[in-house]
Amino acid sequence: MAQKKMALACSECGSRNYTITANPNRVERLQVKKFCKHCNRHTLHQETR
Q1: Of 5, 43, 45, 48, which residue is least crowded by CB atoms under 10 Å?
Q2: SUPFAM superfamilies this protein is in (predicted)?
Q3: Could you read off the pLDDT of 12-39 as tens digits, one per residue?
């Protein structure tokens, strides 16, 4: 069975730069500081649904 994927979107520009596997046990959206190649700096990325 294939795993479901979620995207991480930059909170500054909104581009979806990263993908992660979906975790059904997570109740809140994942927030991680990652590098955004469009903003050219580290920004907060949030899990999209």
Answers
A1: 5
A2: Zn-binding ribosomal proteins
A3: 999 999 999 999 899 999 999 999 999 9
| 5 half-sphere exposure, CB direction, 13 A CA radius | 8
pTM: 0.83
Residue 3 CA to residue 16 CA, distance in Å, equals 19
Give backbone dihedrals phi and psi of 32, rounded to 5 degrees, phi first: -135, 145
CB atoms within 10 A of CB 40: 8
Q: Report domain extents, the chain.
A: 5-47
Strand partners, 19: 7
Q: Do 17 and 48 meet the contact criterion of CB atoms below 8 Å apart?
A: no
